[in-house]
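Hi all, a correction to my earlier message: I attached the wrong file for Major facilitator superfamily (MFS) profile domain-containing protein. Here's the right sequence:
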Amino acid sequence: MASLGTKIAVWLWGADVDGRRLLTRLDFTLLPYFSLIWFLFGVTRASYSSAYISGMQEALHFEGKDYNYMNTAYLVVYAVCQMPGTSLLTIARPKYVFVAANVTWSVLTLITYKTNRAWQVILLNAIEGGFSAIAYVGAQFILASWYKNSELGTRAAVFCVFGQFGSMAGGWIQAGLLTTLAGKDGLPAWKWIFIIVSVMTIPVALFGWIFIPDLPAHRTAWYLTEEQKDHAIRRLGVGRREKWDSTVFKRVLLSWQFYLLPLIFMLYSLCVQMLQNNVMALWMASRGYTTVQQNNYPTGIYATAIVGTVFYAVISDKIKSRWEVSIAIGVTFIIGSAILVGVDTDSSDAAHFFAFYLLGTTFAPQAVWYSWMADVTSHDLQLRAITTGFMNSFDFAFVTWWPLIFYPVTDAPNYEKGYIASLVTGALTLPLVWVITYLQRRDTVRGVIGRIIEDDSSDSTQGDGVSGKPNDAGEAVNVRSTEV
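and the right structure:
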């Protein structure tokens, strides 16, 4: 039995004993906290979609494009606050930043159930966007600060999967409330979900206060030994740039990473807009499906998203490369969008369900491409922090207005122009995958990217200003640069 347990531990956390002990503790503290927060984020955002089609629209007098305006207000503030948020994590202790944001986010969600006009929900969504902006990009930044390139994709996938579970649970919870709590204590079902989500957030915030380990350099994780804290720093290596100075903006603005990774992530987000904005639910409504079915069936998208995200992320970690799975994702963009473009709205329900569920697997870039970004920016702390925030900010700079043009509620159920736009944006990801791969290989060979791993051998002290050479995983090894 012990032998079997050891084999499982080695498969999950690697053969290195010190690394395995460290990863075990991180995987039961750091990873669960961010996963739970992202789960609650998914529940919260799904609750607005579910509430809208389950009574909130009529109760709060939503008219025309008010639903789109609600999402747009949220996304605008969310996008603006992401780069400042990730940059703040390099200055302040992440524990304080995350817990304060979690508590405020919970209070705003609770207030939503007391609203009686659409404009109030729109305003609260905008404010909530500022405090929830750190949830995704901040987690990605912290995870990349603790996990190696060959570990990060899988952990990022686990984190993202909890968000998909949250989105699924949001629909299930609302569907259950429609039959169990509707009218209880004088409250309609759509109001109960905001109360429940708010209450759920508080214990998670407390968990974070206890277990968030900040950054490795802070050495504040009480559940790690001093040796493990040292190992956490050494095993990732040293970044070539670690401080805020006068060169930061030049380093960031002249880097290819700052432009290409946000660009490809933006194209991905625009492509999958048919999976957002209640597109599937509104199409189902036009086909005569019940309200409960409209809440339940779209959750299948999140189920396929979970499978695709885990599969692609694990494969990319195992082969220590992101471009191969990125090509597969890009091809899926094209196939799924082409089906929606080619099939008439009023025919072939099976084709529509297949296309929606197939495209669900393309949520994988949330883990794979953020891990790819961390791989190619690990040499520069400020570049990584700013690019992490900018990836989502640049993304939402387009997502805020894109649905108003290509997926407005008033077009339901015929979103032909939106499906065509998704086909085009999905296809454009393929040449970008090739360009990023080429630049990564070029700069890895040159020793420009990748962390520097100290070598304890006597030879390592004889180099003077020599950059580390990359290993098979694209990480720099064997010498310590005098620039550091």
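Sorry for the mix-up. DSSP finds 21 helices and two strands in the chain.
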